């Protein structure tokens, strides 16, 4: 994963509460086993009609929001099933951060595994961002700040120090394990009898 340090972007506002993982990526698209390719299915049932035509009234189909890397959402984002595909779809579409007042726990954890920063802010702060969606936002992970350009508004967010470290260094669970590769190899050399194939 690429390290997450400072992200500068405008936000894409998804003004809906209780967005669950089946709405983020519908179940019919879960057959893919790779993490890539899910972006085109993000919010599929909201983005497209039954004939596959884009719905003009859905925010992701508005050219104004094209290329924005921050998704702005409401309470309880990512509820429902534990499918990691929801985080894959958000990342593959191009979002690197999601700001909301609250997240479902499993989705929140899956974000960190996939290089996405989930930012929990107060409801009043999220309201402010919705009202000022065209202002540039800077998310500084090291300082744990969301800064709204031109307004002087700075909003602090909490994050677990270990998860913060993983994002700052661009590490997922595999990358973290590989950092210990020398220790693992040394352990295996010292304990060959446990790893040698049996003759019986």
UniProtKB/TrEMBL annotation:
Keywords: Amino-acid biosynthesis, Branched-chain amino acid biosynthesis, Leucine biosynthesis, Lyase. Pathway: Amino-acid biosynthesis; L-leucine biosynthesis; L-leucine from 3-methyl-2-oxobutanoate: step 2/4. GO terms for biological process: L-leucine biosynthetic process. Residues 1-122 form the Aconitase A/isopropylmalate dehydratase small subunit swivel domain. GO terms for cellular component: 3-isopropylmalate dehydratase complex. It catalyses: (2R,3S)-3-isopropylmalate = (2S)-2-isopropylmalate. InterPro entries: 3-IsopropMal_deHydase_ssu, Aconitase/3IPM_dehydase_swvl, AconitaseA/IPMdHydase_ssu_swvl, IPMI_Swivel, LeuD. Its EC number is 4.2.1.33. Pfam families: Aconitase_C. GO terms for molecular function: 3-isopropylmalate dehydratase activity. Catalyzes the isomerization between 2-isopropylmalate and 3-isopropylmalate, via the formation of 2-isopropylmaleate. Belongs to the LeuD family. LeuD type 1 subfamily. Heterodimer of LeuC and LeuD. This is 3-isopropylmalate dehydratase. It comes from Nitrososphaera gargensis (strain Ga9.2).
